Amino acid sequence: MLGNLEIGSTETSEPHIFGQTPTTVRPIVPLPVRPLPAQRFLSAGEYRLLPLTIEAKALFDSHVDACDFLVADLSFSNNFMWLSRMSGFYQIIDDCFCLFSLNGNQLGMLLPPIGAAGNQARALRTCVEIMDSYNHHVSDSRVDYVSPEFARLLELDGDGRSPHLDDGAWLLEPAFPDYIYRTADLIELRGNSYKTKRSEINQFCRAHPNHRIEPLHRRHWDGMRELLSQWMRARLEGLHGTAVADFIASVELERQGIERALAHYDALGLSGLCLIVDNRIEGFTFGERISRNMASVLVEKTNFAIPGAAQYLFREYARTYADCDYINVGDDLGLENLRRVKMSYRPVLFGEKFTLKRSEQM
Known about the structure:
Blueprint: E1 4-8, E2 39-44, E3 47-51, H1 57-64, H2 76-82, E4 87-93, E5 96-103, E6 106-109, H3 117-134, E7 142-146, H4 148-154, E8 170-174, E9 178-182, H5 183-188, H6 195-207, E10 212-215, H7 221-236, H8 242-263, H9 265-268, E11 271-277, E12 280-291, E13 294-302, H10 309-319, E14 326-328, H11 336-343, E15 349-351, E16 354-358
Parallel strand pairs: 13-14
Antiparallel strand pairs: 1-2, 2-3, 3-4, 4-5, 5-6, 7-16, 8-16, 9-14, 9-15, 10-11, 11-12, 12-13
Helix pairs in contact: 2-8, 7-8
């Protein structure tokens, strides 16, 4: 049965706890976050899920801080900016932060429950109940970006059954992995493997001796928007038929994500650079540190008409995270051209991830 999107009041001292809490949800000690005003929530069976707003960052981070994770998906900023294309909701269940996404009439989880390993499997059982109570079909209930560590926690047997889930059969389907590089390799670009990259950067520096790099600031926002529009027009050239419509839809989602990130840039703790040539912004990038030893690049855009600009900006951004051992640039979305580019920088690790869903054989 479908749940309903409702308007309700929340307890300001415990924004994640509602009325008669089901026995499967363990209340936690309130964290020192700002009181939230009355807001909408998603009703799914007995449960009410709160919308993922910027105010939820402190709560999310308090659960994820203990994780030394590889994949960039386990970051508040990454989820918050791309959720412009769907609705995000959360709840604290068994002391775990549980992040849900509403896409059309389907309720899924963007991440497995985040918390202590001893609580995660128990929280997942409740999360599956929540999704099943909302969705038309239980086959719509799924969990994205499952790490290998969480996958092992499920203890799936050869028939896809888990002692932590219902009696049905489940499947862990491999997703596109993240590309992870050694930061020093991206900065130094040593050896024959990076000969082309060095050549492209040198070509750019010779052709544009008056270029400069500036830390990203609000004064750059309009110039970034102009570059993004130019980038879209350049990519549209040569596209025909349905490819045009598909590209426009995809880029609009990306534009919305970038706008959402810029609107909350400081609150998200992002850092970035812009590349200025002849007093025009011809490239920009931003990302974040996701763990003690790893940074993540969320977005990079440069002017296609300036050879070497992308390679130069990428190297300069890597320098800003010289104290991190690794840099994660996300997955390739299954796009062959993007795969070739990311492989050309010689990743040293791949951040594996899976999608958990019910087996079609059940």
